[in-house]
Amino acid sequence: MDLKTFIRDIEDFPRQGVVFKDITPLLANAKAIRYTLDRLVEMVGVHGVDKVVGMESRGFFFGPLLAQRLNAGFVPVRKPNKLPSEKISQTYDLEYGTDTLDMHSDAILAGEKVLVHDDVLATGGTAKATCNLVERLGGEIVQCNFLIELDFLKGRDKLGETPVKALLNY
Ligand SMILES: O=P(O)(O)OC[C@H]1O[C@H](OP(=O)(O)OP(=O)(O)O)[C@H](O)[C@@H]1O
Ligand SMILES: Nc1ncnc2[nH]cnc12
Prior knowledge:
It is found in: Cytoplasm. By secondary structure, the chain is of the alpha/beta class.
């Protein structure tokens, strides 16, 4: 199955000059969802993942499905003022200005093996901030795993030694 046929380019969204990779056609097709999930599971290739961490909001589409297939728990990383219990926060740089992500303080136990999942790796700011949150709680990141990598933005350079994998590259 050619998954790229289920990903739509939307020009100038959310702002002028950005070509947005829209995965909603993929999400609307049952066979494409199953095929994507099977490929993501194959791509993990590591045993004993304890937690899958997914970033708000598009990391929530496949993150819990992946966690279920890996027999792992799912941990949401959320935008500010969404998590109700004690949390840790990480600020990161965007193209313009900064943003913050939160994770519950008890979401990861020291020594747990963690897979970080999101739909798109662009500049890598979101993934880097998420890795920092996991590591601050003592988690060991075994892989950062994406549906789509935008190669020209060099996001993987920000992630240093962490293994980075993507199903589709543009
Ligand atoms: O590598 P980066 O440059 O950090 O960009 C990647 C992030 O951007 C998108 O999320 P967005 O912030 O648009 O939020 P959304 O998932 O709620 O749409 C995408 O889902 C990733 O989380
Ligand atoms: N071009 C893009 N398409 C979809 N999601 C993104 N997140 C950051 N850049 C993106």
